[in-house]
Amino acid sequence: xxxxxxxxxxxxxxxxxxxxxxxxxxxxxxxxxxxxxxxxxxxxxxxxxxxxxxxxxxxxxxxxxxxxxxxxxxxxxxxxxxxxxxxxxxxxxxxxxxxxxxxxxxxxxxxxxxxxxxxxxxxxxxxxxxxxxxxxxxxxxxxxxxxxxxxxxxxxxxxxxxxxxxxxxxxxxxxxxxxxxxxxxxxxxxxxx
Length: 193
Description:
single chain, 193 residues, alpha+beta, Alpha-Beta Plaits, four-stranded antiparallel β-sheet, 6 strands, SPOR domain-containing protein, Cell_div_SPOR-domain, membrane, SPOR-like_dom
């Protein structure tokens, strides 16, 4: 089998030749079709106008003839100043609620637990210098942090903590400030000690 080189092959010429524009039935039929569609649209528009002009307007008398007698109907014009009648109130709960008394049992009141404040813990380090460096980074964000020295099971730890906060919402607000400054590891906990 011989290999063929399709890249260098000359394209075959169209042997039929091009049609000349303007010859044939296509060019004559096209304007005739547009003319026919335009005439039908114009006739439909004229019929629509004729049917609208034959309808009665407000206040006119319409004479109609039936098989037995002649009936005259008048289309009445509404009075623009007349208001519809006021709706009747069908609800009675307003009178019932005026005389209703609510009883509340105060003896079954649950004791309210005192809320513990919240704290934000950003990191815990083995070395105090690292904790002080984190505290300085937080200070550049405009917040005040505390380095808390804690004895753990594996030795001494230095926790970097912010707070206390009365509400979790306030703690979340401060944590968002820290996140904008690039400190993403801060967690919100209940206040310790």
